[in-house]
Amino acid sequence: MKQLLADAGRVLAHEGQGDYVAGHVSLRMEDDPNLFLMNPAGIGLEEMNSDNIITVNVEGEKVGGIAPRHNEVFIHSEVFRARPDVKAVVHTHAIHAVVFSSLGKPLLPVSNDAAFFAGGLPVFSETTDLIITGARGRAVAKTLGPHGALILRNHGIVTAAPSMEEAVFLALKLNQACHAQVMAEMAGGPVLVGQPEEAKAKGAYASRPDIHVNTFNYVLRKSRR
């Protein structure tokens, strides 16, 4: 599990979502759903290894490891508490998503990437500050609801999924979808976009475990070349 978490950090950093030592990923423990592994504070996502990964409980308390805990741990602990189906959570400062959030517009199916969010993409607007309290974490989890991703306005993204590969896949696709729309807005605004029902259908059949795993492993291999 620690290797999978470290690989997730490497994939995200390779795809431009590292933001120096900001951003964090977590993976729920298989033998205890009230515990999860997480990268510590003070290192880049790609610097995770078995020695520095920490263990945290759903109260947000570090219970294992020697490295310090992230202040925004409550994004993870409260999503895990609210969503028993979720095994992995990602939070990054994906720059295209941050820029897109400043437009105050809904995500449109400008590209196929947006299809994965056609079922709903909540935006957390309660604050643009860091999520450093349990109450704020619960508010994020409530806004996320049953969805796989949300945007923290002017801050970043959160994705949550039954597997680490899917959570990373959603983070990559959300940033790409936002990038496509930002470019369209720069060109005068999107005129032709996909139909909402077609986008929902496309997102439903194109979001599969094999695609999540294959994408994850491809970027991981690419990062090592």
Q: What would you note in describing this structure?
A:
- The chain has 225 residues and is of the alpha+beta class.
- The protein has one domain: L-fuculose-1-phosphate Aldolase (3-Layer(aba) Sandwich).
- Helices cover 40% and strands 15% of the residues.
- An 8-stranded mixed sheet has the order 4-3-2-1-5-8-7-6, with helices on both faces.
- It starts with a helix and ends with a helix.
- The model has no long low-confidence stretch (mean pLDDT 97).
CATH class: Alpha Beta
Distance, first to last CA: 23 Å
CATH fold label: L-fuculose-1-phosphate Aldolase
Helix content: 40-55%
CATH homology superfamily name: Class II aldolase/adducin N-terminal domain
- Largest sheet features: 8 strands, mixed
Global shape: globular
Architecture in CATH? 3-Layer(aba) Sandwich
Order of strands in the sheet with the most strands?
A: 4-3-2-1-5-8-7-6
Tell me the strand percentage band: 5-15%
| Number of helices, counting only DSSP H or I runs of 4 residues or more | 7
Number of E-type strands: 8
Integer-rounded radius of gyration: 17 Å
Please trace the helix and strand order, writing H or E for each element: HEEEEHEHEHEEHHH
Low-confidence stretches: none
Keyword list:
single chain; 225 residues; alpha+beta; L-fuculose-1-phosphate Aldolase; eight-stranded mixed sheet; 7 helices; globular
Question: Which helices and strands, and how do they pair?
Answer:
Blueprint (H helix, E strand, L loop, with lengths): L1 H13 L9 E5 L6 E4 L15 E4 L4 E3 L8 H10 L5 E5 L2 H7 L21 E2 L9 H11 L4 E4 L3 E6 L2 H23 L9 H11 L2 H16 L1
Parallel strand pairs: 6-7
Antiparallel strand pairs: 1-2, 1-5, 2-3, 3-4, 5-8, 7-8
Helix pairs in contact: 1-5, 1-7, 2-4, 3-5, 5-7
